[in-house]
């Protein structure tokens, strides 16, 4: 989606109403082909002229189910290649009633009958490269003999000044209709007719009302392009709106409100290009590439962010607070867990206090280095502080002795462990993230820290002495 499903074609215009070309000659070109075990009724497309136009993208397949449609015509996209109906392999059951429009040999299509459609999507970016001329084909370029159509032709020429016959010229006409005229679904076609005269409704739409239903947009575009020499026809059918897509079922419902009118421009070799001049309606293009998919994804993300701007801003602010306060938050959590006494052995709790203290000092680049003993670390901390903390060597002594102490195998705490725990509590209370910067000299970023690639000889000697 978006997808235009064609239902009927109109080639003849008498100034008021569009009519289909009843005497159109059609050659039976239906063929039966099997893809695996599935029969597909194909529309034969021969001729070098058709195959030499490199204006199509890859094939696409759509599936439709018709619930309430009183017709035997199969709504199908432009450039239809084949249809598949389960177990239908008899060509006599399908007829081509108009160009690329098929109908079942029945009064109406059975309800909820799945119909698979295979078609080709036109890449409009290749049209100007491949189509050098737009051939004439009566009655596709016939205009009513009325002086008011001269004014319409003058309007069309004023819109495409300084541009040659090309797809860009068609886009200019469509762009003017979409930007300068308004879609009014409440306006009926009969309301555009004056009671005392048979004035052209297209003329009234273009120069007076400048608002109307999609039928007026399509009729105006077809006549404006005909006055510029293009072959056009009006198409009625159904518009599959991507806004109605149901992600849960994977289907897009189509109702009578989706009845729509648009235009097709003749490119030659029985190739027609879908053009929709009505505001709010888009034409299906080729599947996007990787870059386009990434761009569409970024656009989708931007729209979602914009729709929930306040919520996203609040979450972003909260994440920033958490990021900048992460050290404090982690420390508070670890300290809380340590105080909850959820330890099966006392020595594990003392080692937990050591880890909390080391992480606190490490936040200010005062942490214990990888090969530094606990005694050397506490002496280094004392040298960086103006306070004579007797708590530091006492803590180091108790941690060192605990590593060589015979560990208790039961959960009860003996007297020595209680003294160690009391020292650990005093350490955690004295040296907090708030008090450490006030009690110690924090090394600058440019100053080499202990334990880096270059170590001072004094530190190495201290380690050697401690090991001895």
Describe the structure.
The structure is a single chain. The chain is α+β, with helices and mostly antiparallel strands and 468 residues long. The protein has helices spanning 48-51, 127-130, 147-159, 167-180, 201-209, 214-227, 290-307, 309-324, 326-339, 346-362, 374-383, 391-404, 415-430, 436-439, 457-467; strands at 3-10, 12-13, 18-19, 30-35, 38-43, 56-66, 80-84, 94-98, 101-104, 113-122, 182-183, 211-212, 232-240, 259-268, 271-275. It has a 5-stranded antiparallel beta sheet, with no helix packed on it. Helix 5 (201-209) links the parallel strand 11 (182-183) and strand 12 (211-212). The model is unreliable at 188-199, 408-412 and 446-468 (pLDDT under 50).
Write a compact overview of the structure shown:
By secondary structure, this protein is of the alpha+beta class.
Which descriptors apply to this entry?
468 residues; alpha+beta; 5-stranded antiparallel β-sheet; 4-stranded antiparallel β-sheet
Mean pLDDT: 82
Question: Beta-strand percentage?
Answer: 15-25%
Output the structural class. alpha+beta
Distance between the termini: 80 Å
Overall geometric form: elongated
The neighbouring-strand order within the major sheet is: 4-5-7-10-6
Radius of gyration in whole Å, from Cα? 41 Å
Number of helices: 15
Order of helices and strands: EEEEEHEEEEEHHHEHEHEEEHHHHHHHHH
DSSP helix fraction: 25-40%
Draw up the topology in text.
Layout: E1 3-10, E2 12-13, E3 18-19, E4 30-35, E5 38-43, H1 48-51, E6 56-66, E7 80-84, E8 94-98, E9 101-104, E10 113-122, H2 127-130, H3 147-159, H4 167-180, E11 182-183, H5 201-209, E12 211-212, H6 214-227, E13 232-240, E14 259-268, E15 271-275, H7 290-307, H8 309-324, H9 326-339, H10 346-362, H11 374-383, H12 391-404, H13 415-430, H14 436-439, H15 457-467
Parallel strand pairs: 11-12
Antiparallel strand pairs: 1-13, 2-3, 4-5, 5-7, 6-10, 7-10, 8-9, 13-14, 14-15
Helix pairs in contact: 3-6, 4-6, 5-6, 9-10, 10-13, 11-12, 12-13
């Amino acid at each position: 989606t978006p997808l235009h499903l064609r239902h009927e074609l109109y080639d003849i215009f008498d100034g008021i109403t569009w009519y289909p070309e009843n005497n159109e000659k059609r050659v039976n070109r239906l063929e039966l082909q099997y893809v695996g075990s599935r029969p597909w009724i194909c529309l034969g497309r021969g001729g070098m002229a058709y195959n030499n136009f490199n204006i199509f993208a890859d094939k696409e397949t759509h599936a439709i189910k018709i619930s309430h449609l009183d017709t035997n015509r199969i709504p199908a996209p432009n450039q239809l290649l084949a249809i598949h109906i389960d177990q239908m392999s008899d060509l006599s059951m399908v007829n081509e009633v108009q160009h690329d429009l098929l109908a079942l040999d029945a009064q109406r299509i059975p309800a909820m009958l799945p119909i698979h459609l295979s078609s080709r999507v036109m890449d409009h970016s290749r049209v100007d490269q491949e189509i050098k001329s737009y051939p004439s084909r009566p009655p596709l370029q016939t205009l009513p003999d009325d002086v008011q159509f001269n004014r319409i032709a003058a309007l069309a020429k004023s819109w495409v000044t300084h541009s040659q016959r090309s797809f860009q010229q068609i886009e200019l006409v469509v762009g003017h209709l979409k930007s300068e005229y308004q879609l009014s679904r409440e306006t009926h076609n009969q309301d555009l007719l004056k009671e005392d005269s048979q004035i052209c409704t297209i003329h009234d739409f273009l120069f007076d009302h400048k608002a109307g239903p999609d039928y007026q947009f399509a009729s105006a575009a077809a006549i404006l392009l005909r006055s510029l020499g293009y072959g056009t026809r009006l198409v009625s059918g159904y518009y599959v709106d991507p806004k109605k897509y149901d992600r849960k079922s994977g289907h897009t419902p189509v109702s009578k409100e989706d009845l729509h009118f648009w235009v097709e421009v003749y490119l030659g070799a029985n190739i027609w290009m879908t053009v929709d001049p009505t505001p709010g309606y888009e034409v299906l293009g080729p599947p996007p590439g990787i870059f386009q998919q990434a761009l569409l994804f970024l656009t989708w993300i931007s729209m979602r962010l914009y729709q929930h701007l306040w919520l996203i801003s609040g979450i972003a602010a909260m994440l920033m607070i958490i990021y900048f306060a992460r050290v404090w938050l982690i420390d508070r959590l670890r300290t809380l867990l340590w105080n909850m006494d959820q330890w099966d052995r006392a020595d594990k709790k003392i080692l937990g206090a050591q880890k909390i203290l080391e992480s606190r000092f490490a936040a200010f680049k005062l942490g214990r280095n990888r090969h530094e003993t606990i005694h050397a670390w506490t002496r280094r901390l004392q040298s960086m502080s103006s306070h004579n903390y007797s708590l530091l060597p006492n803590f180091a002594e108790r941690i060192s002795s605990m590593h060589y102490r015979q560990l208790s195998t039961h959960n009860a705490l003996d007297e020595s462990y209680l003294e160690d725990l009391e020292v650990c509590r005093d350490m955690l209370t004295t040296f907090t993230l708030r008090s450490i910067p006030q009690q110690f000299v924090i090394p600058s970023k440019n100053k080499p820290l202990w334990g880096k690639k270059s170590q001072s000889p004094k530190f190495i000697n201290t380690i050697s002495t401690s090991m001895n």
